[in-house]
């Protein structure tokens, strides 16, 4: 059946209704359809969601030239060829192409070819199994409604901030020109990636962090190495500061950020009163669920809350068990690949329940139990150096009560790294569960480590015994030889 644009819909009753066509909604619809269920997706903006247009894809299009140039600049014989600045207009133009110029025709064609209907508009629940689109079109679901509405950026309650119309991740990934001076608030993933990108594109960047370092949820050496590299790139980092007030006198004019901290020496635009003046301000302080206006109150749930789900992603406390919350909206792991993973699991569970399968495989690692989104979440931060981690950090493993041993290795000391770049700097850590002798977590920091990560994901999710990992021989001379060094250190 052809993807249906709002009014000319062929039917109003489906087996499954999917609210939101981000990466999670698309994959959920695909899995439900593959299970033989008629499926419709409701989308209020662009099919492809945040990831395709204002998050993963445009941000990585901005960062790829940055990391490529940095890496080439460390290769003897190649350094001089990349000595100049980035061609910012060309980078921005490529970013525009990567987002298909913020048009979703390609993704709509995919839905169409997959036999999934599309209804454009804002969907709201209107009681059990009913969704009303733009107040007009009523859809009913025989089996399930899956809420895949994602998340949006949060603005902290700082006086003057909203009025100053700061950049959020949306503007930071879609801006058409390079601001002269950019202040970034927040030292999480969006903060460090966007500080890296815009600094390399030519902005004077000041990164304001209220804690004592960057990437606080990762191993401490990750934030330290990224902070060192940002400083070397000319960005200015201030830790232990809070934004007290923001002022922008005229739309499009400079913005003043007033800090709640002892006066510092001042970065670009810094003044003795500890105010920073910039051309743009990016707020990267986390996300809120897009559940404030989806009719949750009509089924007894609280609007604006993250959806509490079981491991099959079924929302808890809903009579009849017909409601699912998948992807960012359930707050289990706010990453595209984890949303897609949950969609595969939830889609299988919806299909099995629709077929009347009496007992689902809901034990950890079962076909109907999202498990990796708690125990083996991989993430790559695309900065220079890259940070790639999976599973638990040493601190998180200790908090969880495991008996652990932490093994570290200097990534720059393996032969592959020596060849990869002059003065390669990086570090690797594995966190071992001493009782089972399997890995709980692995972190790599260094140029190019993003592509190493899946080896660690396989080891952590597969709970591969270390004595078997000893037989997984890394090729010489690759950076993967760090696996051998880590295991040698562990075995002594
Ligand atoms: C700057 C940035 C960079 C990122 N980079 C990465 C990365 O490199 N790798 C990674 O894995 N993750 C990355 N993420 C996270 C990633 O973007 C999210 O985890 C992912 O987009 C979540 O997918 P989703 O489908 O759950 O939600 P979304 O992508 O947010 O999609 C939700 C969809 O639902 C629609 N919708 C909402 N409400 C309604 C409604 N009432 N009716 C109809 N439709 C509705 C929205 O319009 C949207 O299309 C990044 C995030 C940001 C902000
Ligand atoms: N490469 C990737 O995988 C990638 C890239 C970007 C974003 N993402 C995902 O998107 C999500 C959102 O990223 P994010 O960076 O916005 O959120 P985040 O939660 O990763 O980081 C937000 C940071 O802001 C800080 N903060 C909160 N309130 C603050 C305040 N009032 N003042 C100063 N600092 C404050 C927090 O302590 C935290 O360190 C994350 O879950 C992330 O995993 C992933």
UniProtKB/TrEMBL annotation:
UniProt domain Pyridine nucleotide-disulphide oxidoreductase dimerisation: residue ranges: 377-483
Keyword entries, A-Z: FAD, Flavoprotein, NAD, Nucleotide-binding
Every FAD/NAD(P)-binding domain range: 14-337
The protein's required cofactors: FAD
A Pfam family that the UniProt record links to this protein: Pyr_redox_2
GO annotation terms (biological process): 2-oxoglutarate metabolic process
Cofactor: binding comment: Binds 1 FAD per subunit.
Family assignment from sequence similarity: Belongs to the class-I pyridine nucleotide-disulfide oxidoreductase family.
Protein known as: Pyridine nucleotide-disulfide oxidoreductase
Organism of origin: Streptomyces lydicus
Phylogenetic placement of the source organism: Bacteria, Bacillati, Actinomycetota, Actinomycetes, Kitasatosporales
């Amino acid at each position: 059946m052809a993807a249906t644009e709002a009014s000319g819909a062929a039917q109003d009753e489906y087996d499954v209704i999917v609210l939101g066509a981000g990466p999670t909604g698309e994959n959920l619809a695909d899995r439900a359809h593959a299970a033989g269920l008629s499926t419709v997706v409701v989308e209020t903006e662009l099919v492809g969601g945040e990831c395709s247009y204002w998050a993963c894809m445009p941000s990585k299009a901005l960062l790829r030239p940055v990391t490529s140039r940095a890496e080439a600049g460390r290769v003897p014989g190649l350094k001089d060829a990349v000595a100049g600045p980035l061609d910012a207009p060309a980078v921005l133009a490529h970013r525009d192409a990567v987002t298909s110029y913020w048009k979703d025709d390609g993704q709509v064609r995919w839905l169409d070819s997959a036999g999934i209907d599309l209804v454009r508009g804002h969907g709201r629940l209107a009681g059990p199994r009913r969704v009303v689109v733009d107040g007009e079109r009523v859809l009913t679901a025989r089996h399930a409604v899956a809420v895949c509405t994602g998340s949006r950026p949060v603005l902290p309650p700082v006086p003057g901030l909203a009025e100053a119309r700061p950049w959020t991740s949306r503007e930071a990934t879609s801006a058409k020109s390079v601001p002269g001076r950019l202040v970034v608030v927040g030292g999480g993933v969006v903060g460090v990636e966007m500080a890296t990108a815009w600094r390399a594109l030519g902005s004077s960047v000041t990164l304001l962090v209220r804690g004592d370092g960057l990437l606080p949820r990762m191993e401490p050496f990750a934030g330290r190495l990224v902070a060192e590299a940002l400083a070397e790139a000319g960005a200015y980092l201030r830790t232990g500061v809070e934004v007290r007030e923001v002022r922008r006198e005229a739309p499009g004019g400079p913005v003043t950020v007033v800090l709640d901290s002892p006066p510092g020496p001042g970065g670009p635009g810094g003044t003795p009163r500890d105010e920073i003046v910039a051309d743009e301000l990016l707020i990267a302080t986390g996300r809120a669920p897009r559940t404030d206006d989806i009719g949750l109150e009509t089924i007894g749930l609280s609007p604006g809350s993250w959806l509490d789900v079981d491991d099959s992603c079924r929302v808890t406390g809903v009579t009849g068990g017909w409601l699912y919350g998948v992807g960012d909206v359930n707050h289990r792991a706010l990453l595209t690949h984890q949303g897609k993973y949950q969609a595969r699991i939830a889609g299988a569970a919806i299909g099995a329940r629709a077929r009347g399968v009496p007992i689902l495989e809901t034990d950890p690692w079962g076909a109907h139990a999202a498990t990796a989104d708690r125990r083996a979440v991989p993430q790559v931060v695309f900065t220079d150096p890259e940070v790639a981690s999976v599973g638990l950090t040493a601190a998180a493993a200790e908090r969880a009560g495991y008996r652990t041993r932490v093994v570290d290795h200097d990534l720059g000391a393996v032969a592959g790294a020596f060849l990869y770049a002059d003065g390669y700097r990086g570090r690797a850590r594995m966190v071992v569960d001493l009782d089972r002798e399997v890995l709980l977590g692995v972190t790599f920091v260094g140029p190019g480590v993003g592509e190493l990560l899946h080896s660690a994901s396989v080891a952590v999710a597969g709970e591969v015994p270390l004595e078997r990992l000893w037989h997984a021989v890394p090729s010489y001379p690759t950076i993967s030889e760090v696996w051998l060094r880590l295991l040698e250190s562990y075995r002594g």
